[in-house]
Design goal:
With 515 residues, the protein is α/β, with parallel strands linked by helices. It contains 14 helices and 23 strands. It has a 6-stranded mixed β-sheet. Strands 11, 12, 13, 16, 19 and 20 form a 6-stranded mixed β-sheet that branches. A 4-stranded parallel β-sheet has the order 6-5-7-8, with helices on both faces. Helix 5 links the parallel strand 7 (146-151) and strand 8 (176-179).
Length: 515
């Protein structure tokens, strides 16, 4: 069987593992570099030795590149927004809820054209070809080479979006078009926002995928590169160039999936402590519990497939301050931990220093923190555990103590127990669980649509969605014998006529690798 390499790029460290089926053969943790890809190349070079590079069948990478670009409003390309929905949607223009810094970065070029559908696929108004050509000319004259196209109720019927995208591509050669029916779910503004984000990352996606492939080549690997998505599944490098926004929150997803394998559990709370943040999520049926509603990315409401994660600014690199009161985080030394933490000779007191002073970790030189007052160390660590306990409470769905799995390189800052957790498991290789999760990611297929039960039975609607989701998984590279259904939702929409129902089906399967 071919070996796999999993990589996860965090704010502090880049982790890599070499996996033989579900066994960790080797692992490495290196500081994340400013250009990120250099750190990836270093990690790959150390984890895949000269005798194993030829046996590696795939490299799976989870990266924070795209999330950081949106959060920090940098490296985004100018983007035009075309909404198909006039006259029904003109009262609420595109980008209405975007922070000014993001609008300034991508440009405020929005157009609302006639078209769109009602919930039952009846047209709102006919498309106007001359109107689209006028919009195309304005976009072309502005020199914009990325556009987001969103149609009202396009997840039900996407032909208008595809027609507009095709016309824009003819009128503006080389333009990159993102259409909302391929990205978001029902909910016009949130789906539109997700599509605009995706389009604004087009240039960065080209650079990142090219850089990742280069890093893999520098390490002597010839295996194909796959990237992890925010629902725990994989996409190829070429697909990542089309849908870079699908990687948002892939880091916490990888950690949760890795925790499931390392702890041999399918349902529990997962606490992932990195260098900068602690991410807490719920493992359900072997996959992260998805957020049921709107998720904010960079201050913008979206409806991506996102894990239901609570993040707090506590990690191994969190800065400890006492003025005006004792605080740990949210600021962190990040990837400069080995330069700034006191146990490494630096001048900044961090959570890692506290763990070393308390005898909970053997990192750096303990003599450099021997002067810390014992009571101060205990109070600081108690504050950390209190914050984590409060975050765990916010993801619970029932009262009482729960089981939890603790992973992440920063987990050394947690001692024996956390209030509200009955059993805390810290499995072997817990410090590289995120990379393990990337290495075992599967390919998936999902269908999310609204159907009218006046035209078909409930059973037929669900079976049709199952078959389509399975086919999408197979087309993504899933092995037929491994494809399984992990989630089926049937939601009656009583506020709509026509006996409408929302059907959502998700399937996953193992990636076929050459041996």
């Amino acid at each position: 069987m071919a070996l796999r390499v999993g990589v996860d790029v965090g704010g502090t460290n880049t982790d890599a593992v070499l996996m033989d089926d579900q066994r960790v053969v080797a692992s490495v943790k290196v500081p994340t570099t400013q250009d990120v890809t250099t750190g990836i190349a270093a990690a790959l070079g150390r984890v895949a030795g000269r005798n194993t590079v030829g046996r590696v069948g795939a490299v799976m990478i989870g990266t924070t590149h795209f999330t950081n670009a949106v959060v920090e409003a940098r490296n985004l390309n100018p983007t035009a927004v075309v909404r198909i929905g006039a006259p029904a949607t003109t009262a609420v223009p595109p980008l209405i809820d975007w922070p000014p810094r993001l609008i300034e970065e991508i440009g405020d070029r929005t157009f609302v054209v006639h078209g769109g559908y009602e919930y039952d696929a009846r047209p709102i108004s006919p498309l106007d070809e001359s109107e689209i050509r006028t919009v195309a000319k304005a976009i072309r004259d502005a020199g914009v080479m990325a556009v987001a196209v969103t149609g009202v109720f396009s997840p039900l019927k996407d032909d208008q979006e595809k027609w507009v995208a095709s016309l824009l591509e003819k009128e503006i050669p080389g333009i990159r078009v993102s259409i909302s029916s391929e990205l978001g779910r029902l909910g016009l503004l949130e789906r539109e926002n997700a599509t605009v984000m995706n389009a604004s990352l087009a240039n960065l996606a080209d650079d990142i995928v090219r850089g990742l492939r280069l890093a893999v080549g520098v390490a002597g690997l010839t295996a194909p590169v796959w990237m992890t998505q925010n629902d725990g599944t994989l996409m190829s490098g070429d697909t990542a160039r089309r849908f870079p926004a699908a990687t948002f929150a892939s880091g916490p997803t990888n950690s949760i999936r890795g925790a499931a394998l390392l702890a041999n559990v399918t349902d529990c709370i997962v606490i992932d402590i990195g260098g900068t943040t602690t991410d807490i999520g719920v493992l359900h049926n072997g996959f992260p519990r998805e957020a049921s509603g709107v998720v904010e990315v960079g201050g913008v409401r979206t409806n991506f497939r996102m894990p239901d994660i609570v993040s707090i600014g506590i990690g191994g690199g969190s800065i400890v301050r006492t003025d005006p009161e004792l605080t740990v985080g949210p600021h962190s030394v990040g990837y400069r931990l080995e330069q700034r933490a006191r146990v490494f000779g630096g001048d900044t007191l961090t959570a890692t220093d506290l763990a070393v002073a308390a005898g909970m970790a053997e990192i750096g030189d303990p003599a450099l923190v021997a002067d810390l007052d014992r009571g101060f160390v205990e109070d600081s660590l108690a504050l950390i555990e209190k914050k984590i306990a409060e975050a765990v409470d916010s993801v619970k769905t029932r009262r009482g103590a729960v089981d939890a799995t603790l992973v992440g390189g920063g987990s050394v800052i947690v001692g024996g127990g956390i209030e509200g957790i009955s059993r805390l498991v810290r499995p072997n290789h817990h410090d590289v669980a995120n990379a393990v999760g990337a290495s075992i990611a599967q390919v998936g297929g999902e269908v999310d649509r609204v159907v009218s039960l006046e035209d078909m039975s409930r059973e037929s609607a669900v079976e049709s969605a199952r078959a389509e989701a399975r086919q999408r998984c197979l087309e993504a590279g899933g092995l037929p014998d491994t494809v399984r259904i992990v989630e089926v939702e049937e939601i009656p929409l009583t506020y709509l006529p026509s006996n409408a129902m929302r059907v959502r089906v998700k399937v996953v399967g193992d990636l076929g690798l050459e041996t």
